[in-house]
Specification:
The chain has about 240 residues and is α/β, with parallel strands linked by helices. The longest helix is centred in the middle third of the chain and has 15 residues.
Length: about 240
């Protein structure tokens, strides 16, 4: 089945020349041209010590100013144009080949981080079974597989989403927390382990925090995160209903 799928993609690439998903110029390979790659807004320090969001003058971003169970996080891109379009194509438009670019970039960040690289196990943030069936794939699971292969950190499906939560897109920060509260259960042994959560995007951190909370309740020593993209920090003291 995989061989047939690869052959089919190769045939389409031959018949219909590939074009960059951002500027639409024809390219020989990949999905993003080298010029557009240069314009992706990468995350640079200083970073929030909890989620890895860029900050200017404080140890924690506005989203992580209160205590949260996530011990450390990193991200590759800022979730702003044109990176948001890359994520959208990967997540909703079946452009799963983007996982190679995103997953390897995330793996590079993990290998260079003295804490994340020591994780005992990595696990993707799960979708509810019906959403996976409808989308045909879990983008976070694909990323986790590539990261595991690149870093040597074992991948295990340690979480199950127990209910189909509302989309977080237009919910306030507090509504997001309530929406995912109790939506995950641990399905493996995490006692005294350092667990690395993998996802495509981190916005307010509500989903990651809930996953980290249930892992800590089951005895995890530490919970880290790595995402392809993360929203920028907001001005300290303000509220945001920024859509994902």
């Amino acid at each position: 089945m995989i061989i047939f799928s690869d052959a089919l993609k190769a045939a389409f690439d031959f018949i219909l020349p590939q074009s960059c998903i951002l500027c639409e110029k024809e390219i020989e390979q990949g999905m993003i041209c080298n010029n557009c790659l240069e314009y992706l807004p990468l995350v640079n320090p200083p970073l929030c010590t909890a989620c890895g969001r860029p900050t200017k003058d404080r140890l924690r971003c506005a989203f992580c100013s209160s205590e949260k169970p996530l011990d450390r996080g990193r991200a590759w891109m800022l979730f702003i144009p044109p990176a948001d379009k890359v994520v959208h194509h990967f997540k909703y438009r079946l452009k799963t080949r983007l996982a190679d670019l995103l997953g390897r970039a995330m793996a590079g960040i993990i290998k260079a981080d003295h804490i994340l690289s020591q994780a005992d196990v990595l696990t993707p943030v799960p979708l509810f079974w019906w959403k996976t069936l409808r989308r045909t794939y879990n983008q976070s699971d694909i990323l986790a597989g590539i990261i595991s292969s690149e870093t040597g950190i074992a991948q295990k499906d340690l979480l199950k989403r127990t209910r189909n939560t509302r989309t977080q897109t237009r919910l306030s920060e507090e509504a997001r927390r309530q929406n995912v509260r109790g939506a995950f259960e641990v399905r493996g042994d995490v006692y005294d382990k350092n667990v690395l959560l993998v996802d495509d995007v981190l916005t307010t951190g509500a989903t990651m925090s809930e996953c980290a909370r249930v892992f800590k309740e089951h005895g995890a020593a530490a919970v880290y995160s790595c995402v392809a993209a993360i929203t920028p920090d907001r001005p300290h003291g303000t509220r945001s209903n920024r859509p994902v």
